[in-house]
Amino acid sequence: MCELIGLFLGFLSLVMSIATICSPYMRVATVVGSLITTNNFYENLWQSCAEDATGVSNCLQFDTVFAVPDYVQACRAFMFIAIFLKLLGSVCGALSATSTRFFHSHQGYTRNLALSAAGTYIIGGICCFTAISWYAYQITFEFYDPFFHGIKYEFGSALYVGWAAGTMALIGGSCFCCGSLKNIQATRR
């Protein structure tokens, strides 16, 4: 049962991580001290957008990798690694589940797959936390920097979804570890 909960949480974490990098609202402009209040500005790892009072939005893609700040490139890499690891963990977790019976006769294979799923979920959750927290740190640094004269941004809703995705991946990996340890103890008796 613990492994099924871990598989569900890990898969949900995968979906939430994909939603995080696809959402345009990783950071949104604050209107405190701004002269222009009819426009909303928001960004993510791929584009910068502006929306006017009528609801029409114009987005500018970050065309070249060399024009993007280093922390954005690193956050992109960490998020892709997290998504890949969570996908790999979902596959390993689905193959190791007792209800799928792929390796039912080989108990060692299912245990190793479950431990692999646990490890990939946990490392994927750490990568997700690293990317989201680094991005959030940069937003906070620019917001409180008195010498920064660009647009001041605040946390967008996608950052909170990313933190929840990392948390679910860590809990899902922990559930897989607990389920695998129970199975190891049960086979030794």
From TrEMBL:
* Protein name from the UniProt record: Claudin
Q: What is the lineage of its organism?
A: Eukaryota, Metazoa, Chordata, Craniata, Vertebrata
The UniProt keywords, alphabetically, are: Cell junction, Cell membrane, Membrane, Signal, Tight junction, Transmembrane, Transmembrane helix
For molecular function, the Gene Ontology terms on record are: structural molecule activity
Q: Give the protein's biological function.
A: Claudins function as major constituents of the tight junction complexes that regulate the permeability of epithelia.
* Location, primary (coarse class): other
Q: Which family does it belong to?
A: Belongs to the claudin family.
Gene3D superfamilies per record: 1.20.140.150
